[in-house]
Amino acid sequence: MRNFDTFNTMKKGFSFSQAVAEADRCLLCHDAPCSKGCPADTEPAAFIRKLHLKNITGAIRTIKENNILGGACGILCPTDRLCEKECSAMLKSKNLPDGEDRAIRIGAIQRFLIEYAWDTGFRVLKKPEQNRETVAMVGSGPGGLSCAAELAQAGYRVTVFEARPEPGGVLRYGVAPFRFDETFLKKEIGDIQALGVVFKCNTRIEGEKGAEKLLDEGFSAVFLAPGLWKATPLKPDQVPIDGLLSSVDYLASLRDGRLEQTASQIEGKTVAVIGGGAVAMDCVETAVKLGARDVYLVYRRSYLQMPAEEKEIQSTLAGGLHFLLLNQPLDYFTDADNRMAGIKMIRTRLGDVDASGRRAPVEIPGSEWNLDADIVIEAIGNQAEDDSPNWYPGVETGADKRIKANPETGETSIKGIFAGGDIVRGPSLVVNAVRDGKAAALAIQQYLNKQEER
Amino acid sequence: MKSNHTVDLSMDFCGIKFKNPFLLSSSPVSNSAEMVEAAYEAGWSGVVFKTLNSDRIPIIHPSPRMNSYHYGHKRLVGLQNVEQISDRPLKHNLLDFLYLKKKYPDRVLISSIMGFSNAEWEYLAKVSEDNGADMLELNFSCPHMCVEGSGHHVGKAFDLIEKFTTTVKNAVSIPVLAKMTPNITDMTEPALYAKRGGADGIAAINTVSGISEVGLNDLVPKPNVFGIGAISGTSGPAIKPIGLRFIAEMATCKELNLPLSGIGGIETWVDALEYILLGSGPIQVTTGIIHYGYRIVEDMIEGLSDFMVEKGISSVGELVGKANANLKTTDHFELDRQGITQYDLDQCVGCGQCVIVCNDAAGQALDWDETTRRPHLIEDKCLSCMICSFICPVEGLITFKEMPRDWKRREAKIMDTSLEKDLKLSDYKDINIL
């Protein structure tokens, strides 16, 4: 049996002295850009100052009160696009070279403080008396978890429904374990359980009006945050091929008990991953670590157009894979037994800027070629599950089957039903789902207060 | 060889030639010949050997012996120790003297001694001289000897300083330094006692009595020696300002007029040079070595050499006391000359720390433009305290400029002048004591 310890475990974060040293570099800005850059209002400026002034418990309190998934965000956030983006410690000014110094490693400090709280047994959040209305969360991803934690702290009784065997949603089944591991996730969810939130796993809220019915079953309000769990296929009418995997199922297989099976499927093989986002990077990096012979990342645009975070791309590159930029996959070819044999490709060049704000790929006529591959993983994008609108037929959805909700409050077209996270936004960041959960929790409280007044 | 190695850093001190002004002070870093040899190889020109004892009383060091004083992530900004004088048999130390003088005749071996009686001082002085010591340093200043009647207890009883110095001077012919405690108000006074006793020079400062840290769980001040803490010697960069002050005061005391050896918080050539500019001869180092090892002398030699080349100075002796001409008491300041800060905002990174400190600790002279994230200086409110320049992350962004003589600073704001009717105040009348 293979040893998957390093595959399943994150690298260690900051030690105490490393975190203090990093906090000491902080300029403690008057109006800190970092705090403005956090969608979930985690307030890095406050928690770094507190750490700097040895108010460590206060620093932990700031994070946990603002962002119940502060640990996950510290690890998974593309911080160089958020809190660290405008960090003054980079000493950007007219007469200094750009980025003369690097940004404070806010995410790493944040992770440290959360781990330090666990190591020292410091519990910030206390379970209040829960005697208010019951509220249901559909989905235990970052959106559902943050909404649940907020409501539980306000005295509501919260039940989280999760279709899969364990809670966490994308935090568990959508990310490589060495990027965000089981131990950490369990502790962070444990903090939410300690607030009195009840988790009902293996409980899929589906079927005709499945979600709407919750309102009749005694829940005063419902927060829909089921996420996007269908991988967008290269071709909508694709017939199954042995060796053609979806990113959704592939990544889930690393965490749901099928790791060994997937590992033996990948080991020694030539793997091609189609896509250029964070999910594609996770697929590529895991395939490399599981012992694939060659791993190709096939992307139809070029490096600068990749949605994935720069540091993620870099770490993936360093892992040893082949970038096939400016190549559009057209179709697959198989052997006589319907086993994957490779991708039919055509080369592209970059044309004009398209609706996404990036230069669009333009196919180069006559440049078709075949890439041999034993395994192909499609990591092009995630979308709503096909039958999901039936679970909440009264809730207005779009052509893409995503829920239409008020972006500020999460209110949907049905009173008492709120929604947030990827099912509303489309594929987005964990921290944005946390933000949606917080906002919806506030809106749900206001809604329930009004109901009471009547 | 690089050009700076051709610079002659030698200096004469109490009639002894030192090849450079960098010495180990009497401490754990000069505990044995094995250690001193490594220091000599690194480039130190001499050593004040760890204070000898006469084997009359067993010396046992407390355990643990030291505690670090941290500032943020910065380690060893200060160091507190409860080390005693040498716990080695006198014979072993003297054998080490012979070894060092035989192998390194050009390096200066200074024997630090501490007696408990006239006879003991005399005995230790003689055996030191007899076994090759080039100089003596009388330890009147160790602030944490477990034995009463020793160390800084002597340094605070000035007549004993004179008495023991006289005894030693009568017993030996080599130069004698008196090492002083800073745990007093005025060091020139005991130094003059040492001079009357015949001391050839003064070494200062020994460690500053202090407490570096208190354990918050066990409530024991550190170092925690099995449940007990003690006020004891603090050293390192944190105490450099105190050392510089005492050296400058003694250097400018005309009546004293003795060569000085500066000690206290020296880690770099800059620290050493500051001591020298304020009147020190060869300087002594311990905590810098405890932090970085003997290798720091390489940077002291190179740094001081390059400085001397740059400034066209041919001998370290020229630098001794050079800054004291510009050192006066505060009543000498020209108060009719005033200035303010000036900001080179092209370099500004927009952190706004200046705005915070100016509002909370100075003249409220800075406005903050939230759109551009830049400070705006209200010139006539600037106190020229310069605090903003200390916390600004960009070197040279905030500087001082003198204002014209007719420039006036605005008075601090009065919140509510209508309260004047409630004011209980009459003019102060100077009482004529004649």
How many E strands of chain B? 18
Unreliable stretches covering 5 or more consecutive residues of chain B: none
Q: Please state the average pLDDT score of chain B.
A: 94
Report the total helices of chain B.
12
Q: Looking at this structure, what is the CATH superfamily of the largest domain in chain A?
A: FAD/NAD(P)-binding domain
Q: Evaluate the radius of gyration of chain B.
A: 26 Å
Mass-distribution shape of chain A = globular
Q: Percent helix among the residues of chain A?
A: 25-40%
Major sheet characteristics of chain B: 8 strands, parallel
CATH superfamily of the largest domain in chain B: Aldolase class I
> What is the averaged pLDDT score of chain A?
95
Number of domains of chain B: 2
- Oligomeric state: heterodimer
Helicity level of chain B: 25-40%
**CATH first level of the largest domain in chain B: which class?**
Alpha Beta
Report on the architecture of this protein.
The complex is a heterodimer of chains A (454) and B (434). Chain A is an alpha/beta fold and 454 residues long. In chain A, the strands form four sheets. A five-stranded parallel β-sheet of chain A has the order 3-2-1-4-15, covered by helices on one side. A five-stranded parallel β-sheet of chain A has the order 6-13-7-8-9. Chain A folds into three domains: 12-120, Alpha-helical ferredoxin (Fumarate Reductase Iron-sulfur Protein, Chain B, domain 2, Orthogonal Bundle), CATH 1.10.1060.10; 134-228 and 384-453, FAD/NAD(P)-binding domain, CATH 3.50.50.60; 230-381, FAD/NAD(P)-binding domain (3-Layer(bba) Sandwich). Chain A is built from 17 helices and 15 strands. Chain A has helices at residues 5-8, 16-25, 33-36, 44-52, 56-66, 70-76, 106-120, 142-153, 170-173, 182-193, 247-253, 259-266, 278-289, 310-320, 388-391, 422-425, 430-453, and strands at 134-138, 157-161, 198-200, 221-224, 230-231, 244-246, 270-274, 294-298, 322-324, 327-334, 340-353, 359-372, 375-378, 382-383, 417-419. In chain A, strand 1 (134-138), helix 8 (142-153) and strand 2 form a beta-alpha-beta unit. The mean pLDDT of chain B is 94. In chain B, helix 5 (158-171) runs parallel beside helix 6 (188-196). Chain B contains twelve helices and 18 strands. Chain B has helices spanning 33-42, 90-103, 118-130, 152-155, 158-171, 188-196, 240-251, 269-277, 287-292, 296-311, 353-361, 387-391, and strands spanning 11-13, 16-18, 22-24, 46-52, 66-71, 74-81, 108-113, 135-139, 176-179, 201-204, 208-210, 232-235, 260-262, 283-285, 339-343, 366-369, 374-377, 398-402. Chain B is 28% helix and 18% strand. An eight-stranded parallel β-sheet of chain B has the order 13-10-9-8-7-4-3-14. A four-stranded antiparallel β-sheet of chain B has the order 5-6-12-11, with no helix packed on it. Chain B is elongated, with a radius of gyration of 26 Å. Chain B is an alpha/beta fold and 434 residues long. Chain B has two domains: 3-326, TIM Barrel, CATH 3.20.20; 334-411, Alpha-Beta Plaits, CATH 3.30.70.20. The chains are: A alpha/beta (454), B alpha/beta (434). At the A-B interface, helix 2 of A face helix 11 of B.
